[in-house]
Automatic annotation (TrEMBL):
GO terms for molecular function: DNA-binding transcription factor activity; sequence-specific DNA binding. It comes from the Bacteria. This is Helix-turn-helix transcriptional regulator. Gene3D superfamilies: Homeodomain-like (1.10.10.60), Jelly Rolls (2.60.120.10). Keywords: DNA-binding, Transcription, Transcription regulation. Residues 187-286 form the HTH araC/xylS-type domain. Pfam families: AraC_binding (PF02311), HTH_18 (PF12833). InterPro entries: AraC-bd, Homeodomain-like_sf, HTH_AraC, HTH_AraC-typ_CS, Leu-rich_rpt, RmlC-like_jellyroll, RmlC_Cupin_sf, Tscrpt_reg_AraC-type_HTH.
Amino acid sequence: MKVLQFTLPVAHENSVIVQEDIMAAFYPYLHRHHEAQLMWIQEGEGTLLAGTAMHPFKPGDIFMLGANQPHLFKSNPEYFAQDSNRQSRSTMIFFDPNGKLEPLFSLPEMTLLRGFIQQYAGGFKIPAAMAPAVFQQILAIREAGNVDKLTLFLQLLKTLYLANNELTPLSDVSTQQVSESEGIRIGHIYNYLMQRYDTAISLEAVAAEAHMTPQAFCRYFKKHTGQTLVTFLNRLRVNEACKKLTTSQTDGIATVAYTCGFNSLTNFNRTFKSIMGTSPRQYLDGYKAKVAE
């Protein structure tokens, strides 16, 4: 049996680490690392779980994740099919503001950038309009030598800092302080739910998977996620519905509702609007209008 870790080591001698991954699907387990991570999705689609918040991802997206922030880039189901020829590719920059770079960030001249990193401990997504420029900076950092790599990295942080007013945090960091063992346990529960969101999931089944009574599980899940199981499931299903509604292969709103685990169109419409602030039809029309621009 494979032994999983919640806190993954990023082994490297440098203070700014650039890593490129090409694989069938992204690493499928909830984890964290001491380093902050800038993640450029070059190929692959799925759902980013950052803390307890969910965000769809696609090629061209860039996310910043805070140091020690639990996260999971869950590839869509088609990436796990045995006959799939799809691949997932990303370029990442890791840096530990509390490790080797701490003396640098402690300098008076770094006050603004240090505050910026602390402000977004819950991570953020790079605005689409900025992405091409950030792509180029990431590539330059990847190709640079040691001294130039650090200089270009600081220039990248400055670029992100200057876009502060356009950034929205990915998640609230208040519920993210968990132990190693609890992180593994919560990750197992998340995977169970994300693999079965399109089916009827009972509290009893999830509690049994976690080896708890239903009552104990409800308390545990709310304590560690800040949400009830129903709320988390609804957000998960609506997130999947958003992805399906904005694909060219969508078969209509009713089909999307049932394939995302909702037992009625009325329930889907009500839940979708409560989470997204708009109806599925308005969401779809708004997406089509943006594409047509």
